[in-house]
Amino acid sequence: MQGDLTRQDVDAVVNAANEYLQHGGGVAAALVRAGGAVVQQESEAWVREHGPLESGKAAVTGAGDMPARWIIHVSGPRFSAGQDNEALLEAAVEAAISAAAQSGATSIAMPAISSGIFGYPVTEATRVIADTCRRWVASHPGVVREIRLVGYEAETAAAFERALS
Fold first, then answer.
1. Percent of the chain's residues with pLDDT above 90
2. What is the average pLDDT value for the chain, to the nearest integer?
3. Fewest CB atoms within 10 A around its CB: which of 39, 63, 72, 141?
4. How far apart are CA 117 and CA 109, in angstroms?
5. pTM of the entire structure?
6. Range of the domain at 75
């Protein structure tokens, strides 16, 4: 769907994060603007306690003033020739959904992880994300009832729609 991730009435939203959970731009900055300073404060506390967020792992914090209850932070891959970008993105998506489910979330809103400043081509990223969500839901029936794939821009929303059809 096209929309604002921060306004989704779901249990958890996914943040396309960097490993230090610094919310300087893109989706991460929008989450702090919508959720308030507590989002950055909880993120910094998480990093102090656990260290930098590793690829394929997820961090869970509160969502502050947003409709969602939690933010699930994952650090997707920085797109690069010579690495298995698809496997790295799949691991990030799986970590996000699993962490949301473990937190008790039954509805999730997810952006096009890694397609912004991390340089993953939007068409490829949305395909990998959609395919990974399908596989996760099929292997965990009834755990998460809704995963919204949300693109702020019309191009990203259309890419998600193509990936799902």
1. 93
2. 95
3. 141
4. 20
5. 0.95
6. 5-164
Burial-class residue 158 by CB neighbours within 10 Å (0-12, 13-18, 19+).
middle
Query: Which residues fall within 8 angstroms of residue 1, CB to CB, at 6 or more apart?
Result: 148, 149, 150, 151, 157, 160
- Dist CA 78 CA 58 (whole Å): 16
| Residue 48 structure tokens | 């102090």
Q: Any idea what DSSP says for residue 52?
A: S
CATH no. for residue 153?
3.40.220.10
Residues contacting 138, CB < 8 A, separation 6+ = none
Closest CA to 30 of 74, 2, 57, 66: 66
Q: pLDDT band for 60, please (50, 70, 90 cuts).
A: very high
Q: Between β-strands 107-110 and 12-16, what pairing exists: parallel, antiparallel or unpaired? A: parallel
* Structure token digits, residue 134: 């399908």
Give mean pLDDT, residues 85-93: 97
Per the DSSP assignment, residues forming a β-bridge with 66 are: none
| Phi, psi torsion values for 33, nearest 5 degrees | -60, -40
